[in-house]
Amino acid sequence: MKVRTRIMIAFIVTVTAGFLYLLNRVDQSVRPIYLESIEDDMLELATVFSSDIARRSQHGEIELEGFRELVSHAIWRRFEALIYDAIKTRVEFGVYVTDARGIVLFDSTDHNRIGEDYSGWNDVARTLDGEYGARATWQDSPDGRIQMFYVASPVEVDGRILGVVTVYKPTTQGFGFFQKVREEAFQGVLIASLLVLFWGFLIGLWVNRPIQQLTEYSLAVRDGRRAAVPNLGRGDMGMLAKAFDEMRDAIEGKSYVEQYVQTLTHEIKSPISAIRGAAELLEEEMPEERRLAFIANIRGETRRIQHIVDRLLELSAIENRRTLRNLAQVDLVEVLSDILDEAGPRIQSKQIRIAFEPESGFQVRGERFLLRLAFSNLLQNAQEFTPQGGSIRIWFDDRKVFIQDSGPGIPDYALGRIFERFYSLQRPDNGKKSSGLGLSIVRQVAELHQAAVTLRNHPEGGAIAVFAFPKHA
Question: Mind telling me which SMART domains this protein's record contains (predicted)?
Fold first, then answer.
């Protein structure tokens, strides 16, 4: 699993846990506050009612005259009041009064309850015992099951409890306010969580980007591709990038020397053996014609060794470079024309037809020497694989240079290895192989110019090389 994915999963889990925790805190904290507020108001109202009845009951018996009319008038009265976003149109509380035995004397919402025994209810029983009496009960209603709060206050005259006044009220309205607060809290926490996730995503990208750049750089080094070390500043990631680059130099330097020594030894072994054999034979008596043939063979093999060494020096010089030098506007038409002029004698000797389709103003910003070296190798490669009397076509299109030969094409087994160092195919004319370094040089030059080079078979026959420059070059 990627580091960025792990960071985001951990971040999402943390934010979600915090989101659920805040909602739970709203339930655990805000709800009791609402219930406490409701109960407090009901207790004060019950106290007012019990005090009014006690004032009317100075003769030792509960007197409800006047109280019934007051409560009934209040309960049946209609009004309209906007309380924040809720409209209130009537009084929602009810009142019942019991005597000292707990028998109902009055109920503001249901007269059929008069005479019932409520002495077993906590609100009545506790109040009659001189304690604070209250209870909460779930009951059915037209709107479904609702919770009713009951809060009682004693009717006390001269130290005697004559009865109990209980105010009861559904918690629907209070929970409506609570639900609104909860919804608003949910929206607020949700928005805050989304903002935190958004910023966390950006922070994750910011943290993960250097890691991703270092990963891409490491993969490029692993695959043998040229890659510039990412610029990650002077902090910890910058120091890590610098360490990566130094480690790459150390590893590449060691493997580079080992590979080149092994390959150079292998490539030079054959011509040295030929030179040694010819030299040993020259020590013997032989006809002058044969002696000259052996001398020519020695010269040819030494030229071969010199060619390999020169190409190795060219390639090593390019591979050790990370940036271009002596940048200038290079006219590729002019470069290719010069190369064709130099190769004129070899091209004429094979009677190769050149179809050069120059495009005026095809210029790129780069290093002229390296570009000339790259296209010289491509043209030489096309010339060597083009048969006697064949043709080579060169044209430009959309910041690309195309060089097509009329040779046998590239075998399928070699398509993926054609740009490898020291990998070479037999030339059709003489069956010999080259040093296998020319196309490696072309690839290195292309990468230095942030370009791309490909070599593939053409549907009409032969091979076609495409050197594609970036749009901004």
Answer: HAMP, HATPase_c, HisKA
